[in-house]
Amino acid sequence: MEQLMEYLKVLADPTRIKIIKFLLQGDMYVCELVEVMGVTQPTVSQHLRRLKAVGLVEENKEGQRIRYRLVKDKMEEYEATLKCFLAKPIYDIPQMQPEWERYQKAVAGGIVLTCCLAEEDKG
Known about the structure:
Elements: H1 2-11, H2 14-25, E1 28-29, H3 30-37, H4 41-53, E2 57-62, E3 65-70, H5 72-87, H6 97-108, H7 119-122
Antiparallel strand pairs: 1-3, 2-3
């Protein structure tokens, strides 16, 4: 679950999503991404490092320059993991066991959370 969460954190940044979309078009150099995105070279490089850290981007050195490409297989692997996670029942996810037990206790006890009651029902 930790790897999936890190992947989702990486995708949560709009700049990284834009980089992914451009790399879906084909391999690109940093200077090309800088030009089309209108951001600085350090900014693009920082985001590429984060994408590389989760395996979504690979680099290919070409002399003094580096060409970046999207690792589509890795992206598909993360997508499959997310689909599997979302399809799995809560009670089968060890990291959610405490929350599941509280939920089960609340349901079994007929407890309705006060935040869910209409104002007139609270009195």
